[in-house]
Specification:
homodimer; 110 residues; 5 helices; 43% helix
């Protein structure tokens, strides 16, 4: 069994008050990332590999990094993988209504 | 007096139904563009030069192009310049509440 030690940098995220509107909008401006966020909506933690998105694992990892650094999701180490969850409470406190309004705007079937 | 003829491409914009969520979020993810959009909110038409933003005229023109191509603003020729206006009705019809929620999230003083 491989033991992976994740550096602090690999799971670093902004504090609630440091979440920037521009970074959040940029993070959500990509259709794949938006789909990941929509899939995370519901307070579950999900591993990177569990998303039904048409991208490679490394691209998926890259998208999660952008979402995490923007403050949209948090990631925590879980064995050799990571578990991702939506920072719904932080986003709602910082930008009331924003996440729901954006998720409602996602075209059906996308 | 110089007469400038603007090509159709220079004022091209998506039809209401072609406005994409990702493009709108990307267009609004830049603090300068967000400030321009906030300044346009109120149904006025404004010339490129009338915005109090810390960028050169060519950068300003570039930002307006991104906003126009995303469907956030329309531009029409006016002499040697262009007048810009917000496509509030189109955005509201396509993504109800999105523009207001984003504008409400802009930090005060930015």
């Amino acid at each position: 069994m491989t033991t992976e030690v994740m550096s602090a940098e690999e799971t670093a995220q902004p504090a609630r008050d440091e979440i920037e509107l521009g970074a959040v909008l940029h993070a959500l401006s990509d259709p794949v990332r938006l789909r990941m966020v929509a899939a995370l909506d519901g307070d579950e933690e999900r591993a990177c590999g569990s998303f039904d998105v048409p991208v490679t694992k490394s691209t998926c990892t890259h998208h999660f990094k952008i979402l995490r650094e923007a403050g949209v999701i948090r990631q925590r180490p879980h064995g050799a993988s990571r578990l991702n969850s939506l920072r719904r409470d932080d986003l709602e406190a910082r930008f009331p209504g924003l996440l729901d309004t954006i998720l409602r705007s996602v075209p059906a079937g996308s």
